[in-house]
Each structure stands twice: as C-alpha cells, then as structure tokens.
Specification:
By secondary structure, the chain is an alpha/beta fold. It is built from 15 helices and 10 strands. It has helices spanning 3-6, 34-42, 56-67, 84-95, 109-115, 135-147, 170-182, 208-211, 245-259, 265-275, 279-305, 327-331, 338-349, 380-388, 396-410, and strands at residues 78-81, 98-103, 120-124, 152-157, 186-190, 216-221, 234-237, 309-310, 318-322, 367-371.
Length: 413
C-alpha cells in the first residue's frame, strides 16, 4: 500500500509496549434479530457451559455452514470458543513460534502474540488490498527472520479485512498462500467478515482453505454477521487431512480449558441456529450488508472529498482512512499522530474512531478506522428503520448523521 513500506529490507518486530484498552469490533448499529432472541430466551434457564471446544450441535452446525461454502470435514475438525480473541490465542499457543501478519491487522493480533512470548512480524500489504501481505515482502521477511534466529511458524490473514474493509483478489491470495506454504508456514485465515461483503454478485471471495486445504485453519467470529457481539462465540476449522491435527486440536482445547474459555449453552444454541442460516437469518445478513454498503460508500466519498485517502470499502461496517494529506491542517488542531487523531475524531464524530496504531500501523501515520454503525441511527427504532427502508440514505436521521460526518472532514480540507 505504501511505497516506503514496500522498500523495507528488514523485518520489523512489534515488541513495543501494548496499546491498552483496545477498540471493540465495529458496531453493527442494528437490533438483535428477534428469531435469535427467541432461541436464546428459550435456553436462558440452562446454567451449564458447553464442553471445551463446543458441544456436538454447535460443531455440526459449523460444519454445515462451511460445507455450504465448499469446505468439508468432521466434528473432530472443529473447535468453538467464546469469541475470536481466545480462540486465536489458543491457536497461536498450539502452533508456537513467531507470527507473521499483514500491516495493518486486527487490533488483537499483535498483543496476543506478545502475551504468548513470541514475536509478531508485520508485513506490508500490496496496493490492491489489506488483509494479506505482499507476497515478495512476505518471502523477504521470512528469510530475514530466520537469518536472525527467529522461528516463523504462522501466517495470519483476513481475506475480508478488518481494519481496511477490503477483499483480497483470488490471484493475489493464491500467490501469498503458495509463498507461505513453500516456506513451511501454517496459515490461519480469519473469515469473520466474509458474509458482510457489500456487493456479493460483483466480489469474488475465496477462502485460502480452498487453495491450500492441508495448510489452512479457518477462524470465524459469528459476531461478524450472524449473532450480536454481546453473545460471544467463534468457531475454527482445522484442515481435515493435515498430519498432527489431533495433537494441535488437543493443545487448543487445553489452552481453552486453562483460560475457562467456554461457550455459554444459551449462546451456543442461538449460534447453532444462526449457523443453520434459516430464511430470517440470511435475510438479515443480506439487508445488513446492503445498508452498511450504502453508508460506507457515502462516508468514503466524504473522506475523499476532504482530500484524505481510503481504499473503497468492500466488506464489513467500517472503512480505513489515511489523513496524511491533511497533516498540516490537523497539526493546527494539535493532531500530530494517530493517538491524537483518534481522540480528535472520536470527540468530533461522537463515535469510536480508533487510530491506526491500534492495528499495527506506525504511530506517526495519520490513519483511522471509521465505523458505519453509528450512522444508522441513535435509537433502536431508527436503526431498525434503516434496516428496512428502501432508500436508507434518504431517511432524515441517516442523512443528518452523514452530513455531520462529512462536516467533520470538510473543516480539515
């Protein structure tokens, strides 16, 4: 993405102090689906947690979900946990070694690698998208890490990416996966946002597990599209034919057990229902993706009009903006780095605007993740109206929110 980063000739370790109180995932800004609320409520009297790794019904539902996307396997290939962070933590602990990841990356990845005592090596992303490293930069980083005595073992990817809201083109993804496998890296593909693609008929999203079936573990946090974030549940699928699969799964279960990372049974039942993708769920997923696509496009236009930069958002409920071209105007307001930019825009927009430093970008780079959920309304009724409206951008509360959003950037232009 950035020319100065692509010319880097040595690996950059992320071993500075942690960024405390990291941001939550982008808020959907939408009420919970009534059908899922009913399933959860019917199970509310159940007081036990699921067994470590999830119960049979939840894992079978996850298998069926992946099977509909061309990925096959058995119940022994699936593990569930209360959210993506503990599940990814357990996966990294099971594989060990140093971790490579794209830069920028989801906010939890680098701190988790540090907590395990390993080293996180961010690799620059290509111009086309975020979520995957530039394949040549990846090979160079692996070579340098090994020359310095490191042990690169894992590559983390997010094909539909947080924070950049882009989708990796299949041909680029294949280059990255083939380079990683050739270097002996196992790939963890975070596919949390795959069901939030804004234009599914125009965007081809391919899982790395389809390209390198023996070398990819797929991770999906259901809060991306299927259940509310307040009901934490995530699932991972190990490669069915990979040698040593049983040992790695056992190590993941050991870590989840030690953490007490168990899925609550009412949440597991609601999650299994959502993974079954009944009509109400698929309709909600489709409508939510469409409304976020509309407001993200309008927000992207406002950012570009002000003179800032951003890749067109293709998935999720956010976009990632680079305000570097507005540096002098921001400096006049006391904003010189991404921490100050986060504070300034959060106050100006009245909604969380986490800076790029939380996603592995340099502190001096004026980058920020901007959520679209806050643009859908201030009350449950307004948000529900945004979801069902034929033209949500014409609703008074949405139009006003977008006007205020644009004004915050216009004053910097």
């Amino acid at each position: 993405m950035h020319g100065s980063e692509r010319k880097r000739t040595h690996p950059v370790r992320q071993d500075r102090g942690p960024v405390r109180y990291g941001p939550p995932a982008p808020d959907p800004g939408l009420p919970a689906l009534p059908e899922l609320v009913a399933v959860l409520a019917a199970s509310a009297g159940r007081t036990l947690a699921e067994p470590p790794g999830g119960g049979g019904a939840l894992r079978e539902a996850a298998l069926a979900y992946w099977r509909r996307r061309g990925l096959h396997g058995g119940p022994e290939d699936v593990v569930a946990a209360p959210g993506a962070p503990p599940l990814l933590f357990a996966l990294m602990a099971a594989y060990g070694g140093d971790v490579l990841m794209p830069r920028p990356c989801p906010a939890t990845w680098i701190p988790q690698a540090r907590l395990l005592g390993g080293t996180a090596y961010p690799v620059p992303t290509p111009a086309e998208c975020g979520g995957v490293p530039d394949p040549y930069a990846l090979l160079e980083t692996v070579r340098r890490v090994r020359a310095e005595g490191g042990r690169p073992r894992l590559l983390l990817l997010s094909v539909a990416d947080d924070p950049t809201a882009t989708v990796a083109p299949p041909e680029l993804l294949r280059e990255v996966c083939e380079a990683a496998v050739a270097e002996g890296l196992h790939i963890v593909s975070d596919e949390t946002w795959r069901d939030t693609v804004h234009r599914p008929l125009d965007t081809l999203l391919v899982s790395p597990a389809e390209m390198c079936p023996d070398d990819v573990t797929v991770l999906t946090d259901l809060a991306g599209a299927l259940v509310p974030a307040a009901w934490p549940v995530a699932v991972a699928r190990f490669p069915p034919s990979a040698g040593g699969r049983a040992g790695r799964r056992a190590r993941v279960l050991d870590v989840l057990t030690a953490l007490g990372a168990l899925v609550a049974e009412p949440v597991a039942r609601a999650a299994a229902h959502a993974l079954g993708e009944p009509g109400a769920v698929t309709d909600r997923v489709r409508r939510a993706a469409a409304v976020h696509a509309g407001v993200a496009l309008a927000a992207h236009r406002a950012v570009l009009t002000a003179g800032a930069l951003a890749r067109p958002p293709q998935a999720g409920r956010h976009l990632y903006a680079d305000l570097g071209p507005l540096r002098s105007r921001l400096a006049d307001r006391g904003v010189t780095d991404s921490m100050e930019l986060e504070e300034y825009l959060t106050g100006r927009l009245g909604a969380p605007a986490p800076g790029g430093h939380r996603f592995g970008d340099e502190l001096g780079a004026l980058r920020v993740r901007l959520g679209t959920g806050a643009l859908l309304g201030a009350t449950p009724e307004e948000r529900a109206g945004s979801l069902t409206a034929v033209e949500p951008l014409r609703l008074p509360h949405v139009a006003q929110a977008l006007s205020m959003f644009a004004a915050a950037f216009e004053e910097l232009g």
